[in-house]
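Extended Data, record Timeless N-terminal domain-containing protein
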Amino acid sequence: MSSLLYAELAATCNALGYHDGQKYYVDTHCVETIKDLIRYLRRDDENHEIRRHLGEAKVLQMDLIPIFKGYWERSDLFDVVLRLMLNLTNPALLLYREELPADKTSRNFYLQIISHLQMYKEAMSDTAVWAIFSKKLGEILQIEWQERREETSLVVERILILVRNVLQVPADPDAEKRTDNDASIHDQILWALHQSGMVDIFLYISSMENEHQYYMHILEIVSLMLREQNPVELASAALQRSSLEKQRDESELLAIRLEETQERFTKVRKYAGARHSRFGGTFVLKAMKSISDQDLIYHKPLNNIEDLNFDIEKNKQKRPKNRLPMKSERTERRSAYSVRLFLKEFCVEFLTGAYNNLMHSVKDGLVRAKAQANDESYYLWAMKFFMEFNRNYNFQVQLVSETMHTQTFHFVQTQLENCYEMMVSDKKKLLLWSRRMHLALKAYQELLMTLTAMDKSTDASVRNSSKVIKSNIFYVIEYRELILMLLLNFDEVKMSRAYLKDLMETAHIFLKLLEQFCSRSHLVVQKPAARRKKKKTNKDSNQNPQETLPKRDPEALWDELGPQLSVVLQGHTEISSDVIPFDAVSDKDIDEQKVDAMRNIQTYLQEHKFEEAISLLRASREVWPENDCFGNPYMSAEEEFMSIREIFMADIPQYQLDING
């Protein structure tokens, strides 16, 4: 950076104002000065020298926060300070376009920006700062959304993005030196948000349908708030520590103490001056030949023949850096107890009042490509976390009903396949795609675990819903072969050991569910038959005999069949319930088999096989519940009679015979 630009930046920072030890006094041209700093950042170069200089000068800690706390009621000053704070706290990875710099100099600049962000995060743990934001948001949200101006809506979005920027700053465990159950800087930020009322505002926005334009910001904030939490431990947090938690803490402390004692003992022996075993003599091993067909000579004493090792002095073959196994990153830790308690309460309230509504809106935005690229990761994380929390806290499937259906399995499977394809094609971002794929796998695993919990429910309707979902995912070949595909494509260079562990657990859960499903239901697998060629005959003999028969009027035929069908629907005859209308190994897709089911119902009715027609109708209703094509399970006998009539009257093309073979 040139000396002239350095002097301009220093003069601009000095023109903001001064602090006399008790109060901060702003300069008369403070607003224009802050706007100048924003323009400087806009013209920053690829090395981000201006941003790094402002970080070294601690402008945010020494000037912007005191100005914000003392003069937030001035709307012009509030707006420009918020814009500058938002710019300074931008994620470092976004500045480098989501690619870590490769050269050493740029990597050092990147790490310097990270250190500045960590200092910003520590400075933003002040409850008074978030209390001002909470009050400002409360005033804006009291205005009806139709009456808000564009400027006020922009202020709400900027505040939410600022919260996101502060929460996403990575922790520095070596500098903080915080153990589990201790308040880290991230915990202090969470506690400040809780004390200032910002968390309640997040819940309010996520539960209001009129604020759907902020749902994606809320989902990002919630994921960053809970990124270090384990949903199982969070669900089991209580006002009193459990005996199991106390025992676990004591065992961890004991293990650390034994490790320190062992290190101290090793250090004492190292410098104690004890004679080494280098002069222990030479030994001959009988009945063990060397490469010269003579007895093996060994130069160290052996107390046990099994201690003989020829690999001690061998150097392990080094692997290239690009072929090393991917390392697993541990992000979970136990926060301070008070933080865990309020986060548990937050999760319960979020599940009860906001989860289904927010996830529906976010999913709609993802499907319609309204969201930004790769925002699916937040959706998958929220699905996994809150469904696991719900399962371990007080399982109620209606709280997560939005993400518990067959379409969700299809969405997650699509994400898994897309991530794997991007890992192969976009090798520069291999690490990012691998993490996203792991996230999708954990979401898929939690879907299967929720199915297991639904099977154990005392509510019959919940168990029936689980049966319908399982019938769909076990009969469709793409769902069945997903786990096998993931196992075959595992690569330790591209995927971590934690991914492999979750994959094996998911495969185990899937196989157990499949085993239980097969033991309770009749799983039909069709064996494809070999096609036989027909001999060519005369043209007259090849004519379809059915085409020569005159077709009867459907209305007249229904008048004949209707009374007999009504008697069967009244329950006077036994109707089978073990019909499987869907064939998983067939070459036809699910829509074609749906048409075949309707055609078979027509055929059964024409042949006066009313029990088979009703049985096939009810079985098809479970496989294809959408649009009520086969009715719904709660319909009366009269409604079911009319549903069968609609299928009978439908114009469905019949099979075409293959005359030429």
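Summary. The first strand starts at residue 17 and ends at 19.
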